[in-house]
Design brief:
By secondary structure, this protein is of the alpha/beta class. The chain is about 40% helix and about 15% strand. A 7-stranded mixed sheet has the order 2-8-7-6-5-3-4, with helices on both faces. Strands 9-12-11 form a 3-stranded antiparallel sheet. The two termini are about 40 Å apart.
Amino acid sequence: MNTGHYGRHLLAEWMLDPSVAYLNHGTVGATPRRVMAEYRRIQDAIERQPAQFQLRELADVEGRGDPSRPHMRVAAEGVARHLGCRADDLVFVDNATTGVNAVLRSFPFGAGDEILVTSLGYGAVTSTARYVAREHGCTVATVDLPPHDATPDDYVDLVAAAVGPRTRIVLVDHITSQTALVLPLARIAAACRAKGALVLVDAAHSPGAIDVDIESYGVDWYTANLHKWGFAPRSCGILWARPEHHASLHPTVISWGLGNGIAAEFDLLGTRDPAPFLAAPFALDLVEEWGGPLLRRHNHDLAMEGARMVEAEFGRALRTPEELFGPMVNVGVPHRFGTTKDEAVALQRRLLAVHGIEVPVFGDTEGLRLRISAQIYNDRSDMERLVAALRKEAR
């Protein structure tokens, strides 16, 4: 499939409502029909012999090589080859928030240690840092990062300058959630580690959205969702850890695998549906079948085109360098649309109810901001529809 085959006709590959211009793939993703069929095939296989599948074939909780090819490890191998890492260092989690919880709640913090977060971090993840700090007598420091109109160098310098002598872990996004920035992760990690801090990455939006090569980033832990841009069924995420951190890393639910390695501990957390994890390699393979780099380029270019169209219509300059955006772009509209969270919610609801457009809207003192996502089922007509709707709302 090449980029000439992308567009609204591909909505038939999804279960999305075709009457809606869906510019919000980044929020909870959308799973293609083919992946849903594979997901249900796996569920059916489980139900044919649930005890055999769940208790004897799914995971090796004792770390003895029995079964020799546990389903969860086969799936980990299939995912790892897409993400530039070893399967031995990768486990499945429900989502990136769960992965962050596992790392921070396992780490041996001492009184007076510091966790450094950023002002662009996801709220649930920042709440986790505050909870862990409270439990261990630590502190949470926040480095203010500009939400837009900054350069990659700015983000590296600001994070590096905020790392202090008591900073144990720096918690940083790969792609920020609300502002949609692709941060220069490898450079940030190198600067933090040079000052003695470990680096935990919230990469909720990265797999499928941009090229991912985990081992090249020089980070300590990397947790990501596969159910957003990776096409996997919800909920499905991964957690990767450097080998030196395996012994101290535990899931938030302790079960039969305790003490037998991260695969044994994470692969079986009691009875749950493993089908999203087992379908993940199929989903990531489909991303590549549908173009891989071409898909990612289309999504980036179309999101940028939509943002430029909004910019041209309403005059709010988009000064953030294009290299800091992936398949989502955060763009502002004039002050007359409003500034507050309540006004943002109201506009987002009107865009959907009146104009059939699903797109997130956020409050900002300079004027509301939209986060436009593009996927291969979108094309320029969706962006034109958004601009026309905003034009009507402006009147």
